Each structure stands twice: as structure tokens, then as C-alpha cells.
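are you around this afternoon, could really use another pair of eyes. what follows is a protein written twice so to speak, once as letters and once as C-alpha cells for the fold. i want to understand how the C-alpha cells follow from the sequence so walk me through it. anything you notice is useful, everything is just below.
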Amino acid sequence: MMTMYIEGKRTLFSLADITGYLDGIPKIYNHRDKIHYLKIGCGFDIENSVFYANVFKTGYVYQWQFSLGDYIIMGRTLTEMQEFFIFLTDYLRRKKAFILCWDANLGYEYQYCKRYWEKIGMSKLFAKEKRQPLKLIIGDAIEMRECLGLFGHSLAQIAKTYCTTQKAKGDLDYSLLRHNKTPLTDTELGYCYNDVKILQELGDYVFTNYFGKNSNLPLTATGMVRAKIKKRIRNISKVKKQIQEDLPSEELYNTFRNYLFRGGICGTNALYMNEVVKGVVCADYTSDYPAVMNHYLYPMGKPREIKTENVFLKNVPYIVLVDFKNVHAKTSHSLFSLHKCLNALEIIDATKDHNATIDNGRIYKAQSVLVYLNDVDYKAFCKAYYFSAEKSVILRAWEFERYGRLPGYVLDVLNEEYLKKESLKASGQSNTIEYMDAKRAVNSTFGMMCTALFMDDLHIAQNDIYVNGELKIRKGDITEYDENGEIMKKTYQEATKSVFLNPFWGFWVTSYARYLLIDVITRFPKLIIQYDTDSIYYLSTHPDSIRLEEFLLAYNERIERRNKLLFDNNPHFLSLGTWDIEKPFKNLKLVSCIHVTKETAVLCIVMKAGGADVTLVASNPLSTQ
């Protein structure tokens, strides 16, 4: 039995009431897709129990809820959900309108609901991966959209940023097995209510801020930034043509994408395994990716294969395929990933005879490491590892035409959003929608540069698909196979014709950020306890911690001078790319008249390292009485 809430009050379910309510909702026109939406915030969510039947993980839905403006409809079975969707799609088709329905985990809901939605009809799928749809249309009337990738990392974060309603306190106890006959308490129903109410309020925000004569809503956060950057390009056809000319062959691009491109590094110091470590302080590299995008130079032109003996002769960006021999980490930190090595399986086999050591998926030592590196990563590898220079060999090499700054149409958008973010933060508005939008845009600028050039086409199978007589895809699944069992794939030329950013720029961004971290780790290996993309955690009690902090502060002074020149002394950019050292005792004054021993000396050292203003007066009991 379906139930209904109107403005928070529970009432009897009535299709007539819903129809009357929707009749009063105005339409808004989407110029890009040439369709009308009802201007009403909507959301959909399910609750399920998961358990193991023998060794198989399974689950079932015991509750669903759909927000429709001021109306929230709840049901206990997916059959009821299907009946409601049929009613809604029939009504919308008569009105010649769509609704935009938000979901905080569309891929998850899709797995449970697809066979019910498929009976209504599904179309116009957009998915990054087989189980991760970002958009699909049900019954030519309900447009389902995933919201997390667009507006936040969690529903709670979205609620704090965009909504009045917040997540209910606590959580449903998912360890309890429930079914569609299990009575739900008012607290549990309130939890369900709030989740879709948040999605409804997000929908209202979207209509207010993204729909209009010249505005449409992209599918992803990077899509928003991409649209802003494209508007800055005066002659986009010329830019696209140049980028296409600079792209390597499809085979070479795929090789570089799989083995040259790397993300951030994270790990821990093996010296402190199984130890409880105290006195650990964090230093964060402020806005690492925006910083290196502004501060460093990037490859320009097309990679051209050259003779390996010529690779170091010019001051230009390069890529090399190197077979390093007798590799051993210089410190207790293993800083390069095993899975990026072309001979990863050989290295794994070598561990059986102790000829190789893998530290949590990273190389500590190996007889041979076959790897693609650009010029920045090559320098980082030489900092992190010993290897036999006589036996190691560069097998292939490519060079670019020159180094250059990233284009103005990229940096202008990035820096405008960064300035907006920092200005709002400085004025105490870091909890506002405007701040979160600017922060998301800054992060998405880098994400856009690292997006793969092309992926296999995905669609919803309208029938069972067989490959070589075997059922490969069931009806309703998201798949890259067409109805004949052939994989659908764009050609490289088709997929890259709309590209206006050189993919190698993204490769170098992550390389520069890693190098900065590796440089600090290899200079102070015993101090560094842990590192993660843009942060280092170090022992403040170690005698060398003062030297480390002096190094970081000297680096900050150089970066601040550079920022003053780059950004015309704008104070909001001053700290971009500097190390923000945690100071738990900042603004604390310590004046001590004590017997100076190794214990009391360490106390003062720790307090000073933690930011305190320390004054120490020696008071040896034997000499001062």
C-alpha cells in the first residue's frame, strides 16, 4: 500500500490529488534538448537489506520513496514503484513534458529497478561505466540523473551546501534484515523522508540556477567547467584542429594513458610498521593541482620518436621507455607503483625467490623495472631509487617541440574560480553555495584535463544479447555490445574530433605534484611517517624536524615571490602552492625555568615545532640551589 506526505503531513494516497497538484506546475524550456520540463524538484531513493544466501551475496528492496515537489510518495514493493512510474509517465506524456528526477546513487538503484523500468521503457542512457549510469530516461518522460558526481561526494554534503532539509541524525541500522512487511518506525520513515526531500530541494536549486534561455545542465562537474572554457576560446575550430594534429596514434595514446599517466601517491614509512607513533604533524601542499598548473611548463606540440641517445640533448619535454636494472629504493619509502610496470608479473614472480620486494603495491627492489616515464617522473625515479646505470637501458624515446605555459583559456577560468573560492573563504563564507560551486569548479578543471579521450559506447540492451551462442547480456543491462553481439566503439578520429585540450597536459600536472612530494620524502626519509597526494605527516619530535620545517618555509618564500609576480600581488593567491604546516600550539607562549635534561629539552623542542613561542631559562638544581 502506497502512502503519501503533503508538506510533511501523512495522508491517504490519491492519484487524483497528485494529478491536480501537477496541473498547477509551470513548464520550463530546455533549449539544448528542445523539451519542456515541469519546474518541480524530484528525487528517488530505495532502502534495501543485503545478506548472504550460502556464499552468494543478495539483497531486496523493502522501501522506496519519490519526492514530487511538496508531495512525497512511499511504497514497500518495486511492483508498486512500477505502477507509480507508469501513472506518472502516462500523465507526463499527455502534458508533453518531462520531469528531472535526482538520485544520490543511480547506479545502485538501477541494479534493483532496471527490470521494472525496462517494462516501461528506457532510453538515452549516458554512463561512464557499465554499472554507473549518470542519466537515463524512463517512459519518454522521467529523466533520472545522478547527483553525487555533479554536486558533492555525499548526500549529507549536498544537503549542507544546497538544502534546508538535512540528513536525519544517525543512520538506518543496516545490520537488521527487513522486508516489505517489516513495520518501520517513525524515525526510520523520517530518515527515508529526509533523503528524498533533500533531492527535491536540490532539484529546485537546479531549476533556479541552471535552466534559462542560455543555460543547460551538464552531466558532470567537469562538463560545467568545460562549457566555461569553451566560451573563452575565440576560434575553437582552430584549437581543435591543432590538438588533433598534436595527438599521437591511437595505439600510442592508449599505451601512454595506461602506463605513463599516474595519479597521486600515498603510502607509509615501513620503518614504523607495527609501532605507535606520537608527535606527528601534518604539512599540506596548498591547492596542489591548481598550483602546478600555474607554476610549471607543459609539453607543446606532437610527441615525435627520436633516437634514444639524443633524449637528453635538448631542454624539451620527453617520454622514455626504460628498463632499469638492479633497482633498490634509496630509503624506506617505496614510491613507484607496480601496476604501471610493463613487467609487473615478472616482478611478482621474482618475489617468490626474494629477488624482488613489493611494499603495498609499490616497488621496493627488483632486478628489472620496465616503465614509461616523462621527464619529471624520470627525475623523481632517480631521486627515489638506486639502479645500475651501466646495465639500465632506454629502449624508446619521444620528444615534444617545446615547453610552454598552459593556454590562457584554461588558466583564466581556473584562476577566476580560485579567486572566488579564496575571497569567499577569507570573508567567512566557506559554508555557502557560492563557495562550494567555486571549489568544485577548481577541482574539476584538473579533472577535465585528465579525462580519457574516448570510451566504448554504452546503451541499454533492448533484448538478450548472445555472443557465440552464449547469453552475454540480459535485456535491460548496460552494455557496450550491440544487438548482434559486436562491441560498439567509436573510431579514434571520431572520438577526438571535439577535443580542445592536449591530454599530455594532464599527465604532466600529476607528475609535477608527485615530484614535489617525492622531493621532500627523499630529503627527510626518516621523518616522514605518511604521505597522501598533497600532504606529508612527519615526526615533530625528531631532531631534524626543525630542518625540515626550515626547508618548507624557504620553499614557501620562493613560491610567494613567484605568486606576487604571477598574480600582480593579489593576496588571495599568495599562499597558492605553499606548504601549510600544522601548528597545534600556535599563539601559545611557553616560559619555563626548569632543569634542562634530555626529557625537558625534547618538551621544548616539540612545543617550538608545534608553533609555540618558547623561552627557556636553565635552572640546574646543583648550581642554582
